Amino acid sequence: MMKAKTVDKIATAVIISVAAFIVILLAGLLGYILVRGLGHVSVDFLTSPPETISEGGGIGPQLFNSLFLLFLTMIITVPLGLGAGIYMSEYAKPGRVTDFIRLLVEVLSSFPSIVVGLFGLLVLVNMFGLGFSLFAGALALTVFNLPLMVRITEQGLKSVPREQKEAGLALGLSKWKTITSIMMPIAIPVILTGTILASGRVFGEAAALLFTAGMSSPRLDFSDWNPLSPFSPLNPFRPAETLAVHIWKINSEGLAPDAAEIAAGASAVLIITVLLFNLVARWLGRLIHRKFTASK
Amino acid sequence: MHEIGLSAKNLYVSYNDKPAVKNVSLDFASKQVTALIGPSGCGKSTFLRSLNRMNDTIPGAKVTGEIWIGDENINSPKTDVVSLRQKIGMVWQRPNPFHKSIYENIAFGPRYHGIKNKKKLDEIVEESLKKAALWNETKDRLHTSALALSGGQQQRLCIARSIAVKPSIILMDEPASALDPVSTAKIEELITELKQEYCIIIVTHNMQQAARISEKTAFFLMGDLVEYDSTDKMFTDPQKKQTSDYISGRFG
Amino acid sequence: MAQSKQHESKPHLVEEWVGKVYTALCILFLVVTIFSMVYFVASKGLTTFFKDKVNVIDLLTGIKWNPGGDPPLFGALPFIFGSFSTSILAAVIAAPLAFCAAVFMIEIAPKFGRKYLQPVIELLAGIPSVVYGFVGLSVIVPLFRDIFPGQGIGIAAGALVLSVMILPTITTIATDALASLPSGLKEGSYALGSTRWQTIYRIVLPTMLPALMTGVVLGIARAFGEALAVQMVIGNAPHIPGSLFESTSTLTSAITLSMGNTVMGSTHNNALWSLALILMTMTFVFVFIVRWLERRSKI
Fold it and tell me: What residues in B contact A190, CB-CB < 8 Å?
C-alpha cells in the first residue's frame, strides 16, 4: 500500500512537470522569437522593401501581401464555406451520399498543404493560366481552408437550439429564411471565432503558396491603387511573396548579411499577428457570450 | 356544436420504424381548447408535432394517415408546408423567443408574409401583444432584446408571435411546464381568452390544468388514443380503467 | 392571410430553391475540387511509370536519387524513410507529453488546466510552421551541433520540431477522450481504494487507448505532410543517413526544394509528382486508419 502511494506521488509529480514544461516551452518559444525579433522591428522595417544582398531590408511588401492575400482568401472562402456548411448541417439527408461527402471533406482537411500547393500550380497557375499570382494563391488557400470553414459552420449551426429553428418554421418561414434570419444570427459567435482562428492559419501558411502566389513580388508602387496596373499593390494577378514565404526563403537562400535578423524580425511580426488573431477571437467570443447570457 | 377546426384520421407516427403514435383519429373543434394528456412517452407530443408537419424536420420520423383542415388533407406530399405552417401557430415547452427585439419577434412573421407597411406592422405588434396580455409591460421597451424578459413574459411573447401571422389553430406543447405558478396562471388565463378565436390543442402533463382550461380531453397511452371525451366527463366519469387509474394518479 | 393564394405561395418556393441550389453548388465545388485534386496529382504522378518507364519498385525501394546522372536514378526510399522516421519519432516524443497534458487537464487540475494549459496548447497549434522551422534552425540545430557529432541537422532535429507541432493535435484528442469517459468508471476504482495513478494506469489508459492512438495517427499524418519546418532543419541530402544527426531528406522537403527548379514534363519533375502521389496515398491510408480506430473506440 505504501508503495502504491509512492508511485502515485511520483506519477503525479511527473505529470505536473510535463504540464509545466509545455507552458515553459510556449513561453520560451514566444520569448525567444520576440526577444530576438522585436529589436529589429521598426516602422522602417515594417514599411520598406527587402534588399537582396545588402543590409537594412524591410518586409513592407510582404506584410502587405500577407494581409491582402488573407483578405482575398476569406472573401472567397467564407461564402463557399458557409454555403457548404449549411448544406451539410441542414440540407444533407442522412445516408450513404452524405457519409461519402463527409469522408471527402475529412480527406481534404488532411491533405498536406504542399500537395494543395502543387495542385494549385498544376491547375490554377498553369491550366487556368493565372500564373504565379495572388489570385491563384487565394484559391489554393481557399481549398486548404474550406474543410475547416465547413466544420466551423456546422458547429455553429449545431449550437443553435432546436426550438429556435422550429419556431421559425412554425411561423411559416421557408427553411432558407429560417436558416439565414433565425439560426445564423445565433450561430455567428461560434462561426466568427472559428473564422478568425482560421484566418490566423491562413496568415501563417507558406507551403501552399510557394508554387501558387510565388516567391517574389514585383517592385510595388504604393501610390498606384488601380487594381489593373501591373505594379499596383491591389492587382490580384501579380505574383506576391507573403511574410511566411519570405521567412522561409531568407532562411534557406537569404544572401543579405542581416538575413538572420530579418528572419527573426519577420517571425516576430508573424507571431504577434497570429497572437492578435487569437486574442481577438477569444475576446470576441467572450464578449458575445457575455452579451447573450447577461441579457437572459 | 362547434365546427371542426382540424381532424386527424388514422394517424400513425414512427421514429426509425419504432411506432410512437398508433392509428389515432381525433376531431378538434374550433374555438375550443382540447387537452392531450398521458404519461411521458405516450406519444401526445409526437402527435401534436405531426399536426403542423414539424416531424418532417426530424430524420427518421414517418407520419402516415390523414390530417384534414377544411377540405384539404395537409399530410400529403403535395402540401406546401411553408404556407400551411402559417395557418397553425405553435408554442413550445421552453419559451424560445428569437434573439431579436420584442418588436422584431412579432413583426418578423407578418413582414415575411408580405406586410411591409410600417404602420400596419406597428398595429399588428400592438394588437398581438395586447391579445397576449403583454402590451402594458412591454410597450415602452419594444425595441429592447426579447431575451431580457422574464420566462413567463417570454412565453406570452411567443404566443403573441404566433398569433401575429393570424393562424386559425394554435398548438401548445406543455406551454407552462417551465414556468412558476404565477406565470402559469397568466398563461392559462390567456388560453381561455384565446379560445374565443382559435382552435387550441394543448399537450399537458398537469391534469388540474387540463381540467381548468379545456373543453375536451384526449388520453394517450403507449401511442394509443385510449379515451376522448368532454373534459368534465373524463375527470368525473372515465369509461376506461386506464384513464381512471391515470387521472387518479396511480401511474404516470 | 391578407394576400391571395397564388401571391403568398410563390416567393418562398423560389427562395427555398435558391438556398438549396446555392448550398448544393458550394458542396459540389468542394467535391469536384477534391476529385480533381486526386485525379491530377495521380495522373501526373503516374506519368513517371507509364511515360518515363521508371519502374515502380525501383522508385519505391531504390536508395539512389540522382536525376541528373547517367542513367538518371529515381530511388525514393531515402525520402520515404526520412518522412516515416521523422514523423514516427515525432509522435513517439509527443504522445507521452500529450497524454500527461490531457491527464493534467482533466484529472489533476481541471480549473488551472482549462484556464492556462488549454490556451497554451491552442497557441502552440497556431504558430506558423515557418516560425517553428526558424526556431529549429536557430536553436535546436546549433544545440545539437554542440552536443552530438555532425552538423546538428537531420532526423533528430526534424522530429523534435515536428513533435512540438503535433503536440496540440494529440493533446486535444486525448483530452476529449478523457473528458468523455463515464465518471462511474473512475469512481468504481477509487472506491476500491486505488490511488489516482493506479486508476489512470489500469482503468483510464486502457479505455482511452484507441482514442489516444487516433490522436497519434492524426499527429503522424500531420507530421508526414509538413513541408517547410522539416525542410529547414533536415539538411536535404538525398540519402539514408547513418545516424539521427546526419543530413537527410523527406518527401515534402524533396518536393519543396526541387519543384521550382525543374521543367514541367521532364522526368525529374514527373518523379517529384510521384513523390506527391506517395504523400497523397499516405493521407488516404492515415484517414482510413483513423476511421478504423474511431469505429473501434465507439464500441
Answer: none
